[in-house]
Amino acid sequence: MDVQYMVQSPSPDENLLARIDRSLLIFHENKDVIISLKAWMGTKKPINNWFIPKLELMQSITASSRKVGALIQWSADTTEHAHISEIKDPAQHTNNNDYDPQICHHLDH
């Protein structure tokens, strides 16, 4: 959670990037405890791995931000909102037949 909050900074400095690296390191050093306690749960049973693409992506946060600046691109909020407003909401007004043409027709308007 520390990393999720820190990456929202609009102007990361070297101190913040070092804190992000430390938080990620602490998580990786201790994540096996979560699995051993069966606290990493799926919908029906404990998950025994950390194969999470977003978690892998987080390993390059500080290196990328040193090259390109602000970390806001690590948030999916903007694209998630666009997906809801441009796809999910209009889909509720279709008849669920020929879905793609109806969504495209809506987006054309």
Layout of strands and helices, then pairs:
Blueprint: H1 2-6, H2 14-36, H3 53-57, H4 61-68, H5 77-91, H6 99-108
Helix pairs in contact: 2-4, 5-6
Describe the structure.
The chain is mostly helical and 109 residues long. The chain folds into two domains: 2-74, no CATH class; 78-108, no CATH class. It has six helices and no strands. The chain has helices at residues 2-6, 14-36, 53-57, 61-68, 77-91, 99-108. Helix 5 (77-91) packs across helix 6. The longest helix is centred in the first third of the chain and has 23 residues, at 14-36. It is flat and about 50 Å long.
What gap, in angstroms, lies between the N and C termini? 40 Å
Largest sheet: none
Can you tell me the overall shape?
Answer: flat
Give the helix tally.
Answer: 6
User: Beta-sheet strand percentage?
Assistant: under 5%
Helix fraction bin: 55-70%
> Would you report the number of β strands?
0
User: How many discrete domains?
Assistant: 2
Q: Any low-confidence stretches, pLDDT <50, length ≥5? A: none
The topology string of helices and strands comes to: HHHHHH
- What's the mean pLDDT score? 77
